[in-house]
Specification:
The protein has 112 residues and is mainly α. It is 66% helix and 0% strand. Helix 1 packs across helix 4 and helix 3 crosses helix 6.
Length: 112
């Protein structure tokens, strides 16, 4: 990530826009007929979407650490935050999650 504050703001705004879109997609998914409203992308069980996306989402903590980026606790992000909470507490994630301190070191050249 660049050290230019204006470019950082553009990058962060872009990332937050993508998270808002994901939150909307989660809401839309839960509104489909036959959806059981579970906390995961496709319902009640940790599935393929969580396997693919959870590692990318867990890196948001690195952005919080280095840049102070927070996902706002607002209606636009509520479905995304609920989903994150669900997968982060699921044993399928917690048993394979990488160490946060290792992520901080690994991403230092990219983000810091």
């Amino acid at each position: 990530m660049t050290s230019d504050p204006d470019a950082q703001k553009v990058s962060i705004d872009f990332a937050l826009s993508a998270v808002r879109e994901a939150s909307k997609a989660l809401e839309d998914q839960r509104a489909l007929p036959g959806s059981n409203g579970g906390p995961f992308w496709l319902g009640a069980r940790f599935g393929f979407a969580e396997i693919v996306l959870s590692s990318s989402v867990s890196v948001l903590g690195v952005l919080r650490h280095y840049r102070g980026v927070e996902i706002p606790d607002t209606q636009a992000y509520v479905a995304f935050l609920r989903w994150c909470s669900a997968f982060k507490s699921d044993p399928l994630f917690t048993e394979s999650e990488s160490d946060f301190e290792e992520q901080i070191v690994a991403f230092k050249k990219i983000v810091a």
